[in-house]
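Follow-up to my post from last week.
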Amino acid sequence: MKMCLARAAFLALALPPFFAAFPAAGKTTITVQAGAPGKAISPDLFGIFFEDLNYAADGGLYAELVQNRSFEYHVTANRNWHNLTSWELVNRAGKGAVAIDAAFPLHPNNPHYAVVEISQPGDVALVNPGFDGIPVRAGERYDLSLFIRQLYVGGRWDSEKQAGALPLVARLETRDGDVLGEAAFEVTLPEWRRCTATITPSQTVPEARLVLVAKDRGGIALDEISLFPRKTFRNRPNGLRADLAEVIADLKPKFVRFPGGCLVHGNGLGNMYRWKDTIGPVEQRRQQSNLWSYHQTVGLGYYEYFQFCEDIGAKPVPVVAAGVCCQNSGHTGGTGQQGLPLEQMPDYIQEVLDLIEWANGPVTSEWGAKRAAAGHPEPFGLQYLGVGNEDRITPVFRERFEMIYNAVKAKHPEITVIGTVGPFPEGEDFDTGWKIADDLRVPMVDEHYYMSPQWFLDNLSRYDSYDRTRSGVYLGEYAAHDDARRTTLRSALAEAAYLTGLERNGDIVRMASYAPLLAKIGHTQWNPDLIYFTNTVIFPTINYHVQKLFGTNAGDTWLPAKIAGTAEAESAALAFSAVRDGTSADLILKIVNPGPAPQSLRIELDGARHLAAEAARTVLAGDPLAVNDRETPDAVVPVTSKIPVGPAFDCESPAHSLTVLRIAAQTPKPSR
Ligand code: AHR
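User reply:
Got it. Predicted complex:
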């Protein structure tokens, strides 16, 4: 698999040698068959993989600002957590206490709620600081909703029951207690009632808190206390953080794989991600611990995932567990992978089939009707379904995978099932996974690998020799892990070089997604990640810029090319790809120079017609050990300029760089 970078990238697949007649001295010549029919590239090649890891969803992309809004945090998620985590009762004047109860749940899936009892009238405050504070902006609207229920007025044990209203004020406050805005409610009914209000803060404060102030003697039950910015991505209710969603959308992903990762097969059988638990009113969804040691509200559930895909023009790629839990499950007492009991498999398989009906079925179908009721009568157009996530490929796995696969294939031959071939780029799971794919003729398999930058550079030709009669490949998780797992330019360039190889093999590699996507600073379980963020700032890594450059400069046709040059140039390790975008007819060249020496290039566009005389040249270059982080967020960013181009032109490839040349197509002038 290992080959010299330059030879692997260019020579192996090049057309019969073609050299420029008069290559400029000391230059490397790249000759692109620009007029050739080329080779079709998968229309879905570059996408993203979203997993609620590193607070990617709760506390991250999901715009909810209240932490532990429904009092369901649990010690099984995190040994320091409990139902009142992130809530504090402060007796400012008067006296009261808070407790957790489950006697009259709002919904069986949401069993716990808070009970605030005021024994001495005054100001008793229940305070929530959100996820590292609640960021609010002056003049913007924040939608508050909460469920309240009156338990009693006066004293708990008063022999005479009193009637009346208990006042409750919801405030946004600074950390010092300055009021930024408030809304008043009256707690009157002995049944759960949803109350809503809009608060418009008077100041911009990065770390505000939500404070619920009770005043009169009595008892109040509270649950599902929620605060959202009105401005979510595309203004969706129960929506996504707009700035973060925009940065993701800017990648122009062709698909989104979700909701994981290890999160899907889960920490023990009881922790598998079950899609039906994640739809419907948020207060009725079944929450659970997150295998990454925090909590999943599943407020960002299947409806919201599909909606997000539609909003950004990406295909949804949901992944369901293959009837087994994660092999690294701690909750199984170290036994690792376990399979659902076989008697449970028919129900589980039905759940998978129901997902397809929910996504694509008519409104007259049982599950299509639920989608319509949620606000989306049109089908979501589900095309892909992942079954399994880098599972150990054991007989237990195989038996269950086969059952699910056969059922989906029989009922929904239109769905492309994506199988799995273990966690590594080779080895026993990989080989057995591929054998299963061959035996069952699974249309696509999901490969995963996290390797060193050098591994990526050494394996640029990995897919050149893949048998085109076997399953297609979805490279569902990959990243170049540099020393100390940092997102260096060196790692980003290794990935860029690899992506040129994926374009070249875009007939067999149908999809690819970097992993993981998001990481909240201070809550990161996994490094490196593509995008780091706080509540108010987003730090795209250099690797993000690589993904964006490929995503926004994708083509649908790969064009053959040949490299030749001086001895000096031949020792240079360059990776290159040329693609054509059928819609715009633009020609796009990508040149990756991971080495320390700049390269002078002569580029020849054989057979090119109707191209502009100028190209947009975007370069990502710098210190190979540079990292875009909190201290140096823009250490390396793309810089775009114009350069003159023609059938043959010169171009510099700086040391440690990715260069993208986009040459626009020009409509030929009509001849007179
Ligand atoms: O991407 C992070 C994790 O890496 C995923 O959850 C898992 O599939 C892989 O091991």
